[in-house]
Amino acid sequence: MLFLGGLCLMSFANTPDREIRVRHSEYEEGLPKFLPATSMGFDGQNRTFGAFLAVPVDGGQAVALLSRDPDSGCNVLWEALEDAGDGRRGVYADPCSEARYSFDGTALHAGATSNLHQLDASREVTGYVVNFEQIILGACQNGATEGCSPAGEAIRRPVPKGFLPDDFGD
Questions:
Q1: What contacts 24+ positions apart, CB below 8 Å, involve 84-90?
Q2: d(Cα 8, Cα 12) in Å, to the nearest integer?
Q3: Which of 62, 65, 79, 161 is 20 to 30 Å from the Cα of 135, by its Cα?
Q4: What are the Cα distances from residue 75, in Å, to 42, 44, 92?
Q5: Residue 67 φ/ψ, nearest 5 degrees
Q6: What is the per-residue pLDDT across 72-91, written as a single tens digit (0 to 9) for each?
Q7: Bridge partners for 127 per DSSP
Q8: Where are the alpha helices (DSSP H) in the chain?
Q9: pLDDT by residue (tens digit) across 112-162?
Q10: How is the chain split into domains, by residue range?
């Protein structure tokens, strides 16, 4: 009995796999798919952090975007009907601020310090794999120099095991 209790504790105490596999049948091109990562914690509104896998309809490069807004720390939500301002519909909207981001994570609002942070997403025969080992800081905006990637220089940061700290990505 003691052995079984220890085995259960070990399975819950270990960090889950640091990647999420998404089969082709589990997403729709042109519609971001939210991938919750409960081990990363949640925001002030108790929404679980994770990533959005965004596979474009035109066959372009898929992106995986960290769901946490780089400035407010809140989870962004996909708003499919909101106008992106470029003739397309759909934005990632931060419910804690006026922040808005395009399908590929590019900041659409004035005052943004960076685009959304990305995770590595690789295509496989059966779908995509999103890796949660590290993030690529979003491109700097509006003269920002910290917590973002300068033009032409992708800065990577390891994702800590467990809940994301408040200053993660800074």
A1: 84/108, 90/31, 90/32
A2: 6
A3: 79
A4: 8, 9, 9
A5: -75, -5
A6: 999 999 999 887 777 778 99
A7: 23, 124
A8: 2-13
A9: 999 999 999 999 999 999 999 999 999 999 999 999 999 989 999 999 888
A10: 17-158
